[in-house]
Amino acid sequence: MVEYRIDRRSGVATYLQIVQQTQQALRLGLLEPGDKLPTAREVVEATAINPNTVLKAYRELEREGLVEARRGLGTFVRRTLGAAPADSPLRGELAEWAARARRAGLEKDDVAALFTAVLEEQFSDAQTQEHVTRGDLT
Questions:
Q1: Closest CA to 27 of 72, 82, 92, 89
Q2: Could you give the dihedral angle defined by the CA atoms of residues 102, 111, 108 and 29, in that order, rounded to the nearest 10 degrees?
Q3: Residue 132 buriedness (CB in 10 A; 0-12 / 13-18 / 19+)
Q4: Is there a contact between 2 and 47 (Cβ–Cβ < 8 Å)?
Q5: Global pTM value
Q6: What is residue 92's predicted lDDT score, i.e. its pLDDT?
Q7: CB contact at 8 A, 2 and 21
Q8: Please, is 115 exposed, middle or buried when counting C-beta atoms within 10 Å of its C-beta (0-12, 13-18, 19+)?
Q9: Please, which pLDDT band fits residue 46 given cuts at 50, 70 and 90?
Q10: In the chain, N or C: fewer CB atoms in 10 Å?
């Protein structure tokens, strides 16, 4: 079962943090179709947030088709996202890289900014190359 962690200093709305953490768990294969999400009461007890915030997050996940609420039973995962299992060798390589960055004195925000910049470069180049290969760009 997923355990939500709320960062009140992040500037990200609490309900979006729940949505994003659920999506990440789905991408990593930590949640699979049929798995039950924690009840709103369990999330409230663990995080000290308003029950309506949890319900708003679950409604958003339901709107996206990722979960479904079953009256009297709870909220269940309908489908997964992505294909990056938590035990992927790439995860280990990334963990080693992050550890090196930390030893080099980088802060969490510095590492996130660096990773995001490289990610944008790699994926924008890949998309551009794909269009060039298909002849979409002149």
A1: 82
A2: -100
A3: exposed
A4: no
A5: 0.69
A6: 86
A7: yes
A8: middle
A9: very high
A10: C
Q: Which pLDDT does position 41 carry in this prediction?
A: 95
Please give the single-letter amino acid code of residue 48. A
Helices (H), ranges, 1-138: 14-27, 40-47, 51-63, 89-103, 108-134
| 56, 25, 69, 42: CA torsion to nearest 10 | -70
Residues with Cβ < 8 Å from 68, sequence gap 6 or more? Answer: 62, 75, 76, 78
The CA radius of gyration of the chain, in Å to the nearest whole number, is 18
